[in-house]
Every structure is written in structure tokens, then in C-alpha cells.
Amino acid sequence: MVETTYKHNRTPLIAGNWKMNLDHLQAIAFVQKLAWSLKDAGHSSSDVEAAIFPPFTDLRSVQTLVAADKLQLAYGAQDVSQHDSGAFTGEVSGAFLAQLDCTYVIIGHSERRTLHAESDEVVAAKTASAIKHGIVPIICVGETAEDLDKHGPSAVPVAQLKAALAGVTSASDIVVAYEPVWAIGSGQAATPEQAEAVCAALRAVLDETLGSDVASKTRILYGGSVKSTNIGGFMKQPNVDGALVGGASLDLAEFASIIRFQKHAF
Ligand code: PEP
Fold it and tell me: The whole model's pTM is what?
């Protein structure tokens, strides 16, 4: 079993992105069952932090449940507006998410970048907005299959991270998620070695731009077809500190098993 304080004291983070799945009633049932299953298994959030990212409409229910039952489960939103308030139909501000006690917010997921045309500038503005409201941004970066052919594995994720850090200071708490677009929902995960190479390059960007202290304490996640059977390979890599999980986070037993990787994958 790995030490809980390995990799420069970075607590592993397993984050479940539900995307547009599970309404607030389903969220309540899922969160209760997940929390009970982790508690029954003796799981401690100081060993591996678990977080869920339900749709906006579920967040108030999740907040109430987590607070009432003192659940060891973090949660956050899948997106945030770059604006604080005003005439921005359909958007949700960081101030509102902070009122819902969101610890995290996912920013720049590839589905936002492609389906909603989010540019690097918008990702940077959203990152700054999350930080301003005391919410930890999970900044997603990753190359498409075409990028991989044309530019190699790290060029696009490195450029995206540099752009996203425009409004970040060395005092900011951030998480980075490397998600190769070709691996998301495809069943074809990157190899642990591929993930490690890019995560190491991303840590070098943190080192250059924010200093070695931030670089050594920032968690870098891998995302893209993570399952209970492949999480161990990623978590053995020195620069991979957790996973951003899509499809498998909707399967309670599978997600719990990914969170408990230390018990079966080493
Ligand atoms: C994602 O959408 O962030 C993701 C990693 O999805 P999946 O795990 O289904 O590949």
C-alpha cells in the first residue's frame, strides 16, 4: 500500500464529473449510498479525497445533505461564469457557488471548449473568477487526437495551462486536470506513462510560472476512461495525484472502488 503522505504531501483527489446526469432526487440517493459505502469500508478523506460534480440544480440538495450528515465528501460545480452578476442569461456566478459551499469548480472541460466555444481567454477569466470567490478551480487541459499527431503529447496542454494561469498568483489554490480529448468517454485511456509525461510537463509550467512551492503542492489529475481496473497504474506515477472521472463516476460501486484504489491497486 502507498503511504498516505506520499508525493510531497499531496492528498490524492478522485473527482466525479456527472455531466448532465442525475437530477436532485437521484443525487440525494447517490450521495447517501456513496458516503455510507465509503464509511462502511473505513475510508478516510485524509487518505484520498473524494469529490462529486453534479449539475447546478442538484447543488443545494447536496449541500444540505453533506452539511446535515457531516459527510466526508467534497463537491463542486461543472462550470462557473466569468462574471459576478448581471445580464448573463443562463450563467451561474462564483458568488452563488460559494454560497452553496462548493469547494471546487471544473473549468475548461473539453466539452465546454468544443460545444460552447470556450477560448483560452474565457478559461483564464473563469479561473480568476473562481479564485476570487474562494473556490478551487480544477483547470482542464488536453489535446485532441489531431493535436497529438500534429504537435505531440504536451504542446497543447502546456499552452492551455499557461493561458489559464494568466490571473493566478502563487497564493492561489488550484488543481490541474490533464484530460486527453481522445481518451474522454472513448474507453481508450492514455497509458500511465503517457499521462505521467504530460503531467510532469504541466508541473514544470507551474514551477516556471508560480514557483516551486506551488508546483510541488498542486495536485495534477489524469482524466479519460479511468476505471477501477486502471486507476492503480496512474496513481503509481510520481506526477499524477488523482483522477477526474466521467462515466465511471455514475456507477456507485465502480466509483467507490476508484476512490479506494489504495486498497486494491497496490
Ligand atoms: C470526463 O468527461 O472528464 C471524463 C474523463 O470522462 P470519462 O471518464 O467517461 O472518459
Answer: 0.96
